[in-house]
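User: Teach me something about this protein's shape.
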Amino acid sequence: MERAIRWAVNRWAPGWERYQDPRVRTGYGVLEGWISIVANLLLAAVKIVLGGALHSTGLIADAVHSFSDMASSVVVIIGFRISNKPPDPEHPFGHAKAEYIATLVVALLMVMAGFQIGQDSLLGLIRGTRSGVQYPLTLPLFVVLVGLMTAKELLGSFSRALGRMISSQALMADAWHHRTDALSTAIVIVGLGGRNLGWPWLDGVAGFLVSLYIAYTGLKLAYDTFSPLLGEMAPPEDIEAIRRIASQVPDVVNTHDIKVHKYGHFYFTTIHAELSDRMNVHAMHEVTVGIETRILKRFPGECVVHMDPVNLHHPLHARVSDALTRVVVGHPALVEFHDLNLWKETTGEQGDVEISVDPHTPEEQYQALSRHVEQELMRRFPDLHLRVRLKVDFTAEPLEV
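Assistant: First, the predicted structure itself:
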């Protein structure tokens, strides 16, 4: 499905492969939204007519679900339109999170629809079966319902493929909404089949099961949306890619403290880069510009590079670095070290270093850990006074000897 869609949009809409372009993303969102609205309107109309004619609570509930799908697609279109708005004084980082808000609204619509359907189904079960003719599940009706279910599954696959192509949680949420509609139609088929077996109450049970599934899926979507709305870290593969991009820039000795806040489809990145302190400030500036340019080319948004000058030419640097590596690797609470600087004063050799601590280590243990590292280094280098700073770096990579 995704390959076919990618081929189609590249053939009929050149330039749509630039997924990070806000205008292109909006185009994808609006395309999915309008196709979903038209399809859901037609499917819901068929279901409501069949449900009324067959006196099927489950099928009417399924029609309501399709109408809620249509409403969610409207929300998706509005969300993409808002996210495409440029930054303004009140929103200097833009409006990209409107996609997440649209996802949350879609999830809440699903929960509300599930509650209403469940309430109606329970009332129907309590009051008993409706009077009048209870039409059985015939082969032509079965074929029609399977066709409706297949159409919704194809629509869900279409939305899911577009969502993966542009990494859109809003489109993925709409795809889930479509899939729940397809599954609810399957449950309705089971409910109607109960009439053939002389179990008319199975229709009401089917409607109630549909409502539970809709509500559960909506709650799960809402839960999954809270994290990016609060501000979550980018995926580990993105962090590793950023580290690799920065490390490949000439004169960069090491990188650390990489923080990436994914704001919609934009990346707000900060990264520390270690450079030799023998470089002049203009050369350092050129290196940081090179890092920013390369990162932004792959991850558009904002990028700030912090320069950490280190004294690589100190006579003890290599030996102290090797000793620190062994101390850090040998302690389970320590992850890596960086910003190792050494210098000579009248009182003797001085130095400082920053060590990343395992995030699960209690802060009250930091002082003992610092003392442990300092004593280990003093045992190896009696004339060196090394000051150790500990901090948590969630992107730190464990050292290896």
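Now, about its shape. The domain at 248-307 is CATH 3.30.70.1350 (Alpha-Beta Plaits). The mean pLDDT is 83. If you'd like, I can walk through any region in more detail.
User: That's plenty for now, thanks!
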